[in-house]
Design goal:
The chain is an alpha/beta fold. It has a single domain, classed as 3-Layer(aba) Sandwich (Rossmann fold), CATH 3.40.50.300. The chain has helices spanning about 20-35, 50-60, 70-90, 105-115, 120-130, 145-155, 165-185, 200-215, and strands at about 10-15, 40-45, 95-100, 135-140, 190-195. Helix 2 (about 50-60) packs antiparallel against helix 3, helix 3 (about 70-90) runs antiparallel to helix 4 and helix 4 (about 105-115) crosses helix 7 (about 165-185). The chain is globular, with a radius of gyration of 17 Å. Bound molecules: thymidine-5'-phosphate (TMP).
């Protein structure tokens, strides 16, 4: 995080389908609030009124027809709005911002997996995020098969369908991409074994927050 201007703390959660990152982001936000810290819990894509509208366009697949670079741009436009109209103000007010997905999702999905060149992803980051960086990024790591099975169960109570093979490969790539990011930036990223029971994952997250940020 850019020190001096923002007084709060910035924590992001990343991971593939069924990794439980949204649940863990929620648990951490509650825990921080119980510890008496002002919290702003948010998510991407979205988190501000305009970015939530862009979220709809992105998740409905409307942007997909224009290709992965267009998607990367739109995720970035949403992110810029989210920072300008929500995150920065919260940090300036001394809040603990807990965000479900951030820059690493664009790196992993549009970059490493969909093939948008790293130089373009980095350029988008420089424009939209600048020097703002999370204090901690939790990478919730789970084997693709396990994560997908969880996601399918949650979605419709069924097991993975005939597209499983293709889906699996894609999700394995996303997983690898997140692990590569963690290796490149160990001072920011913490990999958590998300195949553990939910309560144990939450303990790992809380321990790391206590150690690094002492709330
Ligand atoms: P969710 O799984 O947290 O609901 O995220 C919505 C989807 O958006 C998920 O499939 C990952 C995708 N996504 C990207 O592809 N790039 C991004 O930059 C972000 C924030 C999300």
């Amino acid at each position: 995080m850019q020190r001096g201007v923002e007084l709060g703390r910035f924590i992001t959660f990343e991971g593939g389908e069924g990794s439980g990152k949204s649940t863990q982001a929620g648990i951490l936000a509650n825990r921080l609030a119980r510890a008496g810290r002002p919290v702003f819990a948010t998510r991407e894509p979205g988190g501000s009124p305009a970015a939530e509208e862009i979220r709809e366009a992105l998740l409905s697949g409307k942007v997909w027809q224009f290709g992965p670079f267009a998607e990367a741009v739109m995720f970035s436009v949403a992110r810029a709005d989210h920072i300008d109209y929500a995150i920065r103000e919260a940090l300036q007010q001394g809040k603990w911002v807990v965000c479900d997905r951030f820059i690493d999702s664009t790196r992993a999905y549009q970059g490493a997996t969909a093939g948008v060149p790293r130089s373009l992803i980095s350029a988008l980051e420089r424009i939209t995020v600048g020097a703002l960086s999370p204090d901690i990024t939790f990478i919730l790591d789970i084997p693709a098969q396990e994560g997908l099975a969880r996601a399918h169960e949650r979605a419709e109570g069924t097991t993975p369908d005939r597209f499983e093979g293709q889906e699996l490969m894609l999700h394995e790539r996303v997983r690898r991409a997140f692990l590569d990011i963690a290796e490149e930036e160990p001072e920011r990223c913490i990999v958590v074994d998300a195949s553990q029971p939910e309560a144990m994952v939450a303990e790992d997250v809380w321990e790391a927050v206590l150690q690094r940020l002492n709330p």
